[in-house]
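LAB NOTEBOOK - FOLDING QUEUE
OPERATOR: T.R.
BATCH SIZE: 2
PURPOSE: Compare the predicted structure-token outputs for two unrelated chains run back to back under identical settings.
PRIORITY: normal
REVIEWER: second-year student, initials M.K.

ITEM 1
FIELD SEQUENCE / FIELD STRUCTURE:
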Amino acid sequence: MLVVIHGYIKTMEEQDYPDGYLRIDHGKIVAVGDMAECDVQALRENQEVQVIDAGGNLVMPGIIEAHCHMGITEEKKGMEGDDCNENVNSVTPHLRAIDAINPMDDAFHDAIKAGITSAMIGPGSSNVVGGQFAFLKTHGRCIDQMIVKAPAAMKVAFGENPKVNYSGQNVSPVTRMAIAAQLREELTKAREYQRRIGENPETVPDFRYECWLPVLNGEIPLKAHVHRADDILTAVRIAKEFGLRMTLDHCSEGHLVIEELQEAGFPAIVGPDMASRNKIEVGNMAFKTAGELSKNGILTAVTTDHPVSKIQFLPICAGLAVKEGMSMEDGFRAITINAAKICGVEDKVGSLAVGKDGDVAIFNGNPMEVFTRTLCTVINGKIAYYDEESDLLW
């Protein structure tokens, strides 16, 4: 059992506790409340309890990265460690991120040290359909033991990336029309497969289309790479045509079509605004976008898109969004509960509530401020990172 005492407990639920405690048992939160409810003397006498005295520091849910390529595009490895895009076939829905993510990538340690306890990880955006994302904890050596949800989303991409990738191969798609047409064709075939399976459950499974069933059944969303406003609205158009859930990833020009996004009702994962504007379609990329979307009622998270910008800068990205107009509370929500909701895992992570996973980050200040240090990161009730200078452990 792990107990955190005397922390400023920011739960991301309805109530915070300026002097609170948190109890985790068998990897799950079993109690959270005011220190007046905590028997400190009993804790001192119980040798089986590990106690962290937060000393008034901020205790909050583990931070969540809602879109990245950590471990699938490894740092310092070049081509040998880059498994992000199978860029010789524009439609590859059957690829699974869990078969390519290397948890030995240094980025995982950087994430843990930054208080990031979970992440949505998957293939890149060179293909019209890239494959299946997975939602993972950031601590571990075996992917199968780190999985929270897999598959968690189906990656699709619009605009510049598929166009650039396939224009040099003298094959389709090389236009936005062809990107949309290929996705519609794939979804039509998948829906026909779904119909056949429904009518005859003994139909021999087709590996190529079986992976679409969670999408068509509404269990997981399309994860749409979209920057430009017209690409955003094309993604919305197709998702509406087929009645699908969807997240709008990057959404760089989302602030230009706010009314349309309000009507569509899809959430947005904004970023990587810390990266350079190195492509035509990101010319209007800015930290103000996340704030504009959240202020207008659109469920919004913030992303680094690691390795486009580094995973450990995720809370700083949220801070820069706050600097450019997002409210402070929405900044916290963009890297915790909003990210969890968008990724479909809010029942497990994203806030400090009884029954949720014991993922906790302790900071000596606001993590969105650049000088703030991570004092301790707890994942599934176990300490994954500890600043030895913090002297928090009894």
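ITEM 2
FIELD SEQUENCE / FIELD STRUCTURE:
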Amino acid sequence: KQGRAFANRDVIIAEDSRASGREIASYLSKGIRAAGYNVVHIGIAPTPAASFLTQKYKAVCGIVISASHNPAEFNGIKFFSPLGCKINEDLEASIETAIENCSSVPAEKEGTSYSEKGELVDDYIAFLKSTFPKDIDLKDTKIVLDCANGASYKIFKELGAQVLSLNTLPNGVNINAGCGALHTQGMQDATKDNKAYIGFSFDGDADRLIASDEKGRQLDGDNIIAAAALYLKGKEALKGNKVVLTIMANLGLINFLKANAIEPVLTKVGDKYVFEELEKDDLSIGGETSGHIIFRDISQAGDGILCALQLLAIVKYSGKPASAIK
């Protein structure tokens, strides 16, 4: 039904909760329509939602208006290819040059359209839920979520968990303000004080994750990658027995992987470079210490919420507390 609303000249736009997002979206929409394309605006939504929906509906591209983990006064634009991947550096540079050389926005072309379809995010939520094992019962599992006053979607209650949510009242200027993936102490304390099973902190556009064990100790991207790599290897699902890391990866993680017969592949800092390396060698998982983690067999983009679900499943299957990861 929703698929019929899409044509091969549609561009998907999403934004996080910054006050400047709507105005930027308005100018972008005019430019896109002036170029002869339609705009499908899905509203405030996680960056990975735009990636997923761009691929699902075969849009021309996806655009997210977000400055990710940065304070509210900053904003930026992220582009995704029709496959849901971040665009390469050359194309990115050419877009920046075109913007710098543009002195005015031409009129929208006749026959193009602008529509708001926030309901499409439900498809993304359904996808996330489908990635969580059906044989895991979360009925008595208490989880703390720090949504950074951003674009995070809280699906854990729908999976049956007991959820304590923090920083879920965005007002346009409080995104990432003393909370979220860069400021995790509040989430860690809440996890420990409320005797929760695990805690998760997302950044403003929900493409990165930092977790906490039940003792209130931080689990960063390196901890999560180590747990996921070992789990996938045990299932014989770790392609090439390799994991992609950046040059910022902790030496302890590198040595841990080698000790478990997993080869670390190092690349430049940035999740787009991690993805390129994963794609080049057809590998399963890679990421950054900062919490950008890509489960490439499931998604084309770093996704904090997806990562949280995968980590939760890994810990549940282990039969041990989350502190066993640390």
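REVIEWER COMMENT (ITEM 2): The longest strand covers residues 38-44.
FOLLOW-UP: none requested
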